[in-house]
Structures are given as C-alpha cells and as structure tokens.
Amino acid sequence: LFKSTPMKTKITFSILIFAAFYCNAQTQVAVIRDWVEHFANQDSIMESPAARDGDGNYYVAGYTLDENTGADIVVAKYTIDGSLVWSDQFYQSSCYCRDQATAITVDENMNVYVTGITFTDSTNGFDYATLMYEENGSRLWERYYNGNYAGGYDIPVAVCEKEGGIYVTGTSQD
Q1: Model pLDDT, residue 149
Q2: Which of 46-55, 92-101, 163-172 has the lowest mean pLDDT?
Q3: DSSP codes of every residue in the chain
Q4: To 5 degrees, how large is the angle CA 102–CA 8–CA 3?
C-alpha cells in the first residue's frame, strides 16, 4: 500500500507551486451565467476543467459515459454566446475503462492541450494521457506517461504551454 510521507508531500507541493509559477498559470475563469449548454449525461459533470482563449471562446473538458467504452474524455469548444463549435471524445483502448480530463489550457495560437487519466490495462493501471488539438478541433496527437509502479495510479493535475514546450505535472505512484 502506498504511504505518503511528509517529505514526499512537501516535494509534490513544491513541484506544483513551481509549475504554477513557471507556466504563468491562469486563474480559473469566473462565469456569470449568460447561457447554459448541456453536452454530456448529467452525472458526468464532475470537476470539469475549463479555459478561455484570446477571442473569448470557452473550452471545457471532462468525461462522458459511453455504453461501449465506459467513461471517455470529452473536450468541447463554445463561442462566447454558447454555441458549440466542436467537440471530441477520446478513449485510449477498446475496453470498458475510465478516461477523464483533469486539466486544460489554450496557447496563444489557439492550440488546446488537455491532460487527464486513462486506464490502460490491469498491468499499467491509470496513466497520464495528454492530447493536443488545433483551433478547429482536429486532434494532432496524444502522449502517455506511465510511472514505474505496475498497476499504479499516475494522475496529472496541470498542463501548460511555455516557449513551445508542453509541461504536465501531477502524481505518480512509485
């Protein structure tokens, strides 16, 4: 069983603080309700990360339930007036597994970066999945991180773009 020590907690907290300052982390956007759009099942709206681009468009990520693949990462872009521009559903494997977005950011070129958890298989457990989208919603790539502990929990909590690099941080069971 994994046990957190005070030193590991301090190191993890320090890394998260460093990542927030290094990436000029944006604060969460406070929204005054001008419109409401429903995309997924009501029970799938949990801790959905959101971001806003320079043109005022909103990006929301989270997960949606699919009867064939389980919980899948979903990413949606809305205009400032709430019209859906595009959406994408992502799952890593063909199993009935759990995939869920945990963080999202938009760079100055309107590229969208989403990170979250994906259940790879019983050998690898939960891993990081990081996705990149173009402004038009085309998914350009996905990348994975699997820690050293077989069957462990690797959970990303933040993503940012800085000087052409993508930085993801979180926890990894080891």
Answers
A1: 77
A2: 92-101
A3: -----HHHHHHHHHHHHHHHHHTTPPPPPP---S-----S-GGG-SS--EEE-TTS-EEEEEEEEETTTEEEEEEEEE-TTS-EEEEEEE-SSSSSEEEEEEEEEE-TT--EEEEEEEEEETTTEEEEEEEEE-TTS-EEEEEEE--SSTT-BEEEEEEEEETTEEEEEEEE--
A4: 85
Give the separation between CA 115 and CA 130, rounded to whole angstroms.
Answer: 4
* Among 98, 137, 94, 132, CA closest to 115: 132
Is the model's pTM score more than 0.85?
A: no
Percent of the chain with pLDDT over 90: 34
